[in-house]
Each structure stands twice: as structure tokens, then as C-alpha cells.
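Please check both lines for our workbook:

___
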Amino acid sequence: MQTTFPRLLLKHAAERPGAPAMREKEYGIWQAHSWAGMAQLVEHIACGLHLLGLRRGEHMVIIGANRPRLYATMLAAQALGAIPIPLYQDAVGAECVFPINNADVRFALVEDQEQVDKLLEIRGQCPQLAHIVYDDPRGLRNYAEDGLQSLDALLDAGRGFATGQPGFFRAEAEEARPDDVAAMFFTSGTTGNPKGVVHTHNTLLDRAKAGADFDKLTSDEEVLAYLPPAWVGQNIFSYAQWLACGYVVNCPESASTVTIDLKEVGPTYYFAPPRIFESLLTTVMIRMEDAGRIKRGMFHYFMGVAKRAGPALMDGKPVGGMDRLLYALGGLLVYGPLRNTLGFSRVRVAYTAGEAIGPDLFTFYRSIGINLKQLYGSTETAVFVCLQPDNEARADTVGVPISGVQIKVADNGEILVKSAGLLKEYYKNPTATAEVLSADGWYHTSDAGFIDASGHLKIIDRVKDVGRIKGGANDGAMFAPKYVENKLKFFPHIKEAVAYGDGREKCCVMLNIDFDAVGNWAERRNLPYAGYTDLAQKPEVYQLIKECVEKVNADLSVDALLAGSQISRFLVLHKELDADDGELTRTNKVRRGFIAEKYQPLIDALYGGKAEQFIETVVKFEDGRSGSVSATLKISDTQTFAPVKAAA
């Protein structure tokens, strides 16, 4: 698709000016923005930014949730030839310093008072940050900072400029070329400073169009934009594909209303990481356990039918007449109402990515008639590398290479990708760019995997994380920590896991329980607890988690490659791993090295044979204050199983 984002906006505005482009829920009521209205809004913001001094080639940060006026500002910046950089709205001020200084940012648009305070707090470290524009004025009436103004004031100035120079905006928008830089996304920085991934209009729109063609997306789709715009996945689904297809993007009122808004919107095209699907299912199962005996019995009976017949029906495979009849009855009594409760009654295509999804979780959604599939990609590849065709969705693969993508596997097992959607470069980091982009155009993903017999890609782990067990009965066995962690997180009672074992004689893990799921489990057993730390250390909870761990070990024992990665010992952490405490990235990826340093006494205790270990940890609260949490953690041994040899 050889075009630019602003040109696509103008194209939609010309072809169907009155059609809805975006909706925003405000004070409980959905407000629609037409394509013509969006184009006019973008024009006025662009003219206002021009008056402020934003020029071609400059960077501008955007910080906030999904809001039409924030998306319009991204388009306005691109129309002027500037480069928007969305940053995570839940990042603390210190995390914004490097991106702002690295990209020499002078302009920022933020959503509200919280984000204004964040930037004012770090302004001394970012002296070039001259202009901060805010969308929501609540709480900001008495602020009198240099360069601080409301988006409404900027719009008023831009409106006046546009009236005097009606051809300015279109002339600026037409100057942009498909190969010009369109946006920059900072990686999560699991091992150091984040890197600015530079993408052009062409790289982003080429992949957006390829993904849309693959799933036959049209302008009739409805999408709910609820994940952080700074995450490239959300940006592709609610920005690049929005403009490529011309469908409607719906912005929730707030994070707390997303589940309600999901039901009201009834999206036809939906994307979420596995954690969201896990959370939705956990909520359903908790409610079902609290339901009456008859309703609970009917649910479990028809879910048995769904598990038996649903995936086959979804894949167009033959199903017996009785199962087909029972499934139709289950659709009326259970599956239909359940899809409606989840907000998925109209979903035609649903995707998950970012982490592996558990087979049971994956099968559950497909068995009740939701076309859930997996995709593979990254910030550097503009997301779309592999997608699962409708009739070939499997829990253990991430799909087939789509149009415009070539894949090969290096000798060390690393996946290499060639695509029209590859990053242009890492900003001001030629060394890092040269490490991932070869001279002949192959991108090194750092993921280890292989193409199976059906042409689907399977991912094992990060190449750098794949190690070897050293010493003991499994000396030399492959160790893939992420693979082990994902298997553990398939259980609804386990929220997070961190596995260690490379260069050691066995695998040990530290876990977080899912507080809601385990809390409900405890309440149904009349097991009292006084909070997360207390619940996590209950002997009954340890037994529950131990059973999950041993099921994983039994599963690993039949895997010829990874039987040596079975878990010998585990502990349940006294606090949840948190991005604010540096333990997770803003995209909720485990920072395994940081955690190893922070919890070194716990790792020493796991490998030292101790039965318990005291730990005290500094934590950061939501209001910015610091405190500490301490506990004596139990350490549990688990049963491991002899590797099962494959039949000859």
C-alpha cells in the first residue's frame, strides 16, 4: 500500500464523509466522530502545532489512553512531516526521560493532569521539552507553567489559521512520501535502555493491509481500542488497520469500564494478549462456581459437548449427528449467553499474541464458537509475520508466513524474517541496528523455533534464554525457561512464573498466584486470609500450586527435547511482580535478570536445599510512596518423572 496515514484519512473523508470513524464513551454515552469530522479535527490540530513551531522531521510524544483527539494529534503530526512517539501512560516519569532526550523531543501531547504532572516532574532533566499540550483540563485550571496549554486553546488557534490559509493542511499532507518516517516505538527494554524502533508509512501500512487481506477485513468491522497505544500491537489494530480498512474504532470511557464497553460495542475484530483471555475466563469460572447446582451442572455438561465438537465444527471437520444436535442446543442454553456475557457475541476474528496461550484456554474459546487464533510478530516487524488461517488454528503454533514474508531458521535455531514491514533502524543506535538487520535484509528475531511439517511456525523460547542443565542426572539437557513459564501460566491459579536452570543441575521456579482465582478457591473452602502475602503462604495453597507444577513436570517428561527442564523446587513470592518495581516491562514481560539480582537470597535458598527463606522487598505504591513487604517464604520440593521414550 504505497500511501501515507494522512492521505488515507483524507481519502476516507472524501469518499464517505458522514460514516463513523471513531466513537468515544463520555459520561456513559457513546459519541461518534465522522470521517469528515476527524479530518477537520486533524487539520485544526496540525495548524495549531505548526503555529507552535512543530516542523518536518521533529519528534512529538503522545501520552495517554485511547482517545480520538490523541489519535487525531498523531495524524496531525504526521501531516506536518513530524514523527509521533506514543509512550506508555502508566510509565513513571523517570521512564520517560530516556525516550524524550534520545529523540530530542520539544513537543508533548498528554491526556490529563496525571500526565502533565509526570512531565513537569522530569522537565529539569529534559530542558528541550518546551511545549506540553493537555487534552482533559480537569484539575489544571491554576497551573501556570511555561509552554503548558490546553488542546482546546491550540485548536482555536489552529482553526483561525486554517480559515486564513485553507490550502495549508492539504499541501503539507501531500508532501509526505510512503518511505518517510511515520512513527517511532520504544521497545520495553528488558536488558537496558529501550530502543527507538523507526517505522515508515510504508512498513506499517504494508503489514496492516497484509493482515487485513488475510482475514478479509472490511470497513464494516467494529474494534475496541483498550490496550496502551504505545504498544505496537494496539497501534496496528486501532490506527494503521483503522486507516487501511476504514472500520470503526471505539474508545472505552476508562480502564474500569472496558468489560461493560466490550459488551455494548460487540466488536467483530478483537485482539488481546493471553492474560486478558485468562482473566475473562477466570471471571466466568468464578461466577459459575458460585451458581446454583442445576445451572452449574448444565454448564459443565454442555462444555463437555463443546470440547468434543466445538473445535471440529469451527475447523469445518465432520461431527456426528447427535453431537451436532447437542452442540446446537448448547448454543441456545450456554454458548450464546456466554459469548454475550464476555462481549464476544459478534466476534468474527479474534487474535492473541505476545505470549504462548495455554491449550485448554485456547480450546475453550474455540469450542464455544469464538474464532480465536494466534499471530506472531514484533515491534520491529510491524506485528504481522505469521497468522493462523481460519481452519488451521492450533495452540502449539503461531501460524503460517503471510503475504510478503519470508522465514528461514538459522543453524542455532534462530528465526530470521524478511518482510516489507521491517524497521528502518533503531534510532541513533547503528550498532544495535547492525546486530538485527543483516546486509542482505534478514531480521534476526532472537526467537528460537522451527517450521513444522504443515508449514506452521513453532516458537520455543528466546535464543539467548535457551540454555543447558549442567550436572546431575539431566546434565546437558536443553533448558527453555519461557517454555516452562508459559506451561505454568496455563493454570488459572498461577499468574506469573520465573524459571531458572541454565548452568545449574536442576530447574527451580518462583511463582505468583492469581489472587482473584486463588482467593475464590480459598473462600469456597472457608480458608481465611488477610491479603496476598498471607494467602500465598498458606499450606493449602502450596499444595494446590504443587499439583499444578507436577502436572507440568508430567507433561515435560514426554517431551524429548525438554524433559530435563522439569521443576525440582518452587516457592510462591510474597508480592506480585510489578512493572513499577522494575520486575516486569510495561508490556508485562518478565525481566528475568533483574529479578535474579533482586531476589538472589531466594534463588540461593532454592538451590541450597533450604525449606524456607526470609525476604524483605522495597515496593512502590500507586501514589508514588515507597514501602517494604517482608515474609518468610516456604520452599517446596516437587516430584519429577523419568523421561518417556518415544515409541519406535
